[in-house]
Amino acid sequence: MKLRSVVYSIIALVLLMASCKDESLFKIKGTVKNPGTIKKAYLLEADSTQISIIDSTAVAADGSFEFKHPAPYANLYKLRIGTAIYDLIAKNGEVIEFTTDENDKAHTYQIKGSESSEKIQEFNKLSNFWGEKNSKIVEEYQAKVQQAGKESDSLIAIYRPMFMKNMDGYTQDVLKFINDNKTSLAAFYAMSSLEPMKYEQQMVAYADELKDKGSFSDNPGVQRFIRQMMLVKPLSLGHKAPNFTTTGIDGKPVSLADYKGKYVMVDFWASWCAPCRAENPNVVKAYAAFKDKGFNILGISLDVKKDDWQKAIDADKLTWAHASDLQRFDGPTERLYHIEGIPANFIIDPQGTIVAKNVRGEELEQFLNKTFNKPI
């Protein structure tokens, strides 16, 4: 009987502690070892558009500090201590224990009481690992350039593949992290670190899953992301390309329907767009190699002056068809295709399905080789 009474007492105590937990806010109990001149800690709130300081508190002589703050929904927060910034994810009811050492130049930290915060810490370690690898490549490349006295194509040919290989490694690790942590808000922030134009297909699939499961329905940043991806989805791979009619450079109507039964790349660009002009030689090379195999291009310019547009066509030797609304990003074709940045392109197959999107340089070459089975 005595043992049973002890067990019941422990259970009652646990229930009492749980019932006393304040569900209207979260707490951060922090410790900065060797605080030195650190007198204040700042709490920042992050969303998909900005980061704002929402609170500050004194750091005691022994390095201890505490925050109490309401969170209407689970969200990404940051602690700023001295020059270092630390990520955490908090929600009401959590008591988070945070520890760091001001003498640690790597700014490592320990965190308890929030599983999502532990996950965002895991993601940051992953991100830092690949970031450091790329930094070493960049430093080595810059040292070689300085030694040679100039940049050279041969150096770029050596270091660019190394850099891109690391970026691919980072992406694969991020996608694995997301897949392993789908129920954590940390996965959402990991997905947000990827390049939208390149990894749109994965982002749309992730947004679909969030929407279907009703995940993080109270988080505005997540819901904004879902809405954006739902707008993009009809223009993602595997969907039918929407038809449009615009004006050719010769003043005659040009329609996507004119290319029914053919492969066509709809290429959004402009004379004033430096990255577009830099990519044009690659497009010229691809068109020359595959035009006789059935590869067509329809250039859609975001210029507003026809003279500028024509001069760029002539200068870059763009011998394919051209059209424009001459309204920058506000033209009906640009709005229909949700063009928010250029260069941007859509490759459409003979059935009118989008089969590739935003492929440039080597990726364009690889796609065309695979599609037409002919090396450039």
UniProtKB/TrEMBL annotation:
Residues 235-376 form the Thioredoxin domain. Gene3D superfamilies: Glutaredoxin. One of its GO terms (biological process) is cytochrome complex assembly. Its main location: other. GO terms for molecular function: antioxidant activity; oxidoreductase activity. It is found in: Cell envelope. It comes from Mucilaginibacter corticis. This is AhpC/TSA family protein. It holds the Pfam family DUF4369. Keywords: Cytochrome c-type biogenesis, Disulfide bond, Redox-active center. One of its GO terms (cellular component) is cell envelope. CDD domains: TlpA_like_family. PROSITE patterns: PROKAR_LIPOPROTEIN (PS51257), THIOREDOXIN_1 (PS00194), THIOREDOXIN_2 (PS51352).
